[in-house]
Amino acid sequence: MAAISARNARRAAAAFALAALVPHAAALANVGEKIHATQTQIDALHHRLERKRDQLRFQEQREADLSRQLSETSASIAHVTANLDDLDASVRHNERRLAWNGRQLDAAEATLRRHNDALKRRLVDAYERGDLGYVNVLLASTSFNDFAERWQDIRYLIAANQKTVRDRRDAERAVARARADLEGQRQVLDATLRRERQEKYALAALAEQRSVLVAVASRQRRSVSSEVTELEDLTAAQEAQLEAYIRQRQAEEEARRAAEADARRRAALLAGVEAPPEATHGGPGTFSWPASGPITSPFGMRIHPGTGAFKMHTGIDIGAPMGATITAAAAGRIIFAGWESGYGNTIIVDHGGQTSTLYGHCSQIFVSNNQDVQRGQAIGAVGATGDATGPHLHFEIRINGVAIDPASRLK
């Protein structure tokens, strides 16, 4: 009878302990569902955000390309305008030369006309009355030598008159050639001016078109940027909610452990046996290295390699190759396994005592939520998901939600 009574007492104690744990199990399941639902929403927002960021990068590149093309067009317009100024100056210079040569040609033609008129009159006079002027000069000579000198002078005079006529005609032809050359140059310059002005008008139309395209691209870029900002804010709000759920999950894990310990003590008391010793959990100074490799970025303020922002680095980066094994730094329970924004694929292990570890940028996750793990157990693989410039493990230790430097806690 005593044995039966003891056995019944142990069963009653076990039932009492199970009843004490049921509310905690239900609460944990409820928070787990909230974490899962929030994580699903974050995953969807993350995919939308990545698509919008790709669209934003495309719009930024498009705006930059159009702005560059507009700058090139403006430079071409400036070059053509400078050419037009030079051509206008050349045209004005040629017009001045044409006017000067025209005046010279007019003077040469007037002189030539006077000589021609004088020659015609002399020919008419010679025909009607005979031209005795030169004969009279010769007959007025007083000696043979005087006659010879007069004859030579008359020959020089006639030759001089003929040379004057030839020189005038040569001058007329030279001026005519110069005028023709300048006229040809002016025609070439006029044609070049027309082409340059047509090109300038075409470039101006192109510049106006590209200005419109730049303005449209700028508006589209601003619109997409606004959408990205909204999605980032929404994602940040969801992530803050997720972190709150994780903290709640961690607090409930503490409550579960306390309830289990209390239930074990009560069960032992009812059974009349000694209570088992309380299980201890990892804490500061009891963590093993989660991956093999050097610290490539320590804990503390730094310039983010991806964004260039100066901000707090809440963990350490351990350099390791893609796919290298990640192990649990201490025994505990998985309270989060999934995507966490900049951390990428993330695992969070609760170790009790409000202490948790975080493993970020995983390429693979080998565990699931609510799974118990042991120190050194493989839980994931090194990757470069989230905001990572290359494969590595981002490792954090948090106590009461506050990040501490893991380097002094790793053994």
Element layout with pairings:
Blueprint: H1 2-128, H2 133-139, H3 144-271, E1 295-297, E2 300-303, E3 310-313, E4 316-319, E5 325-327, E6 332-339, E7 345-352, E8 355-365, E9 372-373, E10 378-382, E11 392-399, E12 402-404
Antiparallel strand pairs: 1-4, 2-3, 4-11, 5-10, 6-7, 6-9, 7-8, 8-10, 8-11, 11-12
Helix pairs in contact: 1-3, 2-3
Q: Please, what is the oligomeric state?
A: single chain
SSE class: alpha+beta
Our count of helices gives 3
Number of domains: 2
Instruction: Detail the poorly predicted runs.
Output: 1-7, 9-22
CATH fold description of the largest domain: Helix Hairpins
Q: Can you identify the CATH class of the largest domain?
A: Mainly Alpha
Q: What order do the helices and strands follow? A: HHHEEEEEEEEEEEE
Question: How much helix, percentage-wise, in residues?
Answer: 55-70%
Second CATH tier, the architecture of the largest domain: Orthogonal Bundle
CA-to-CA gap between the ends? 54 Å
Shape: rod-shaped
The number of strands is: 12
The share of residues in extended strands comes to 15-25%
